[in-house]
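Narrative summary of target 7.
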Amino acid sequence: MLTLKEKKTYEFIKNFMLKYRYAPTAAEIAHGIGIKSRGVAHRYLKKLQSANLIQLLPNRHRNIALAEGESLPSTSIPLLGYIAAGSPIEAIPQSESIEFTNILAGPCRYALRVKGDSMIEEGIFDGDVVICEHTEIAKNGQIVVALIDNEQATLKRIRYSPDHAQVTLIPANAKHQPMVYSTQRVKIQGIYIGLIRFAD
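Modeled conformation, tokenized:
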């Protein structure tokens, strides 16, 4: 049974995520529900997690996700058909839509802005915003967010040695060389889902 403050906390989280499309911090929750203690806010979050209303994701600054079955209103736009980027094609109306809530704002999704040109042959360019899914496990060949020596994060395709003693991070640019590390030096922080590119 939730207390009034815990219910208020849950409603604040949902309204915050509806407005900003990302989770609030404990400090933002404390301010939003009118309390001074982040510790108390953390206690409310633990209770909401115990009630299966939210999930608290590890190793994340904004670590709150709505639990399965609890979701924000969907955000979709109509998919009207195809557009030629080569020879013109016949315009054929479509009646589909693209659901962005699940793609961009899933419980384990986050965004990063790309800096550099090491993945241009995968169509990932400097300034693009990549959408990633938080995970600590990746399969051979996946494009991952890899943290090296707990200091530097990079977006590369991953390849494990047969004995998993080494990890090779492979760029998609002939000007860059693959980087080889012992497995202990590399932590997977996410896998690449897709990207957003805004017109200049």
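The chain has three domains: 4-66, 74-100, 109-196.
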